[in-house]
# Entry
Amino acid sequence: MNWDVALKIVSAAIGAVGGASLIVVALSSWLGKIWAGRILANDRQKYANQMEVLKTTNENYINSLSLTHSAYLENSKAFTEKRITAIQILWEETVRLRDERPSPIIWLDILMPSEYEHFKTNRKLQYAEKSVDFESIAEAMKSNADLVRPFLDDRAYQIFWAYRALIGRLCHFIQKIYSDGATGGSWRGDDGVAKILATALTEGEVKKLNSEKWSTFVTFNYLEGLLTNHLRELGSGTKLGERTLTDSMKFYSAAAELKKEHEQNS
# Structure
């Protein structure tokens, strides 16, 4: 075998090996593209499924918030209507108590404390004893306002209670004059009266009442004024409207955050 033949054999062998390598490389590239495409398709499907789940979750949450908000507004509307009715009933009861207030109470304004003994000694005032006994007081204290208390705030019922309780206490004060005699002290100095007024009036208002020596008429009128102003504010729905607006803003803020999160993940 000469060198030419040997060289041809070696060249043929190398060419065969090189061709095979080219085939292997080509097949590897082709298979790589196929698998890469499949993996990419799987990933796309996986992320698409995740995005669909996230989208559905967000939509369900927004719908839930919307339904909750709608229900809240409906309940607020129904509660407001009941509150208006409750305000009307409470004021009607206040007017009834004013109109039915036992007449002997006004004599506490007419007589000086040193003259309270006239309740017992003056025959024209002896009628008052019956109208301030416990049975009469209990009858006067009956009220439908208790039935609407859940629809009022504490302040409204607090003032009403003080108004009603003051009538009862003043009747009791007069009754004690009939049973025990006058002590010479004013009704304003009665411990029971002081405790009742402290539930509705500020310390400054109580001091003013005593220093200016308010009459029972002025005191009742002042309580009526407090109640009127408070019921007017309560009935206007200002505070309830502010609360509803705040809750609505919270709802729309939550919905906007969900929308923003969804757009970022899209």
The CA atoms of residues 19 and 25 lie 10 Å apart. Residues 3-66 form one domain. The chain is about 80% helix and 0% strand.
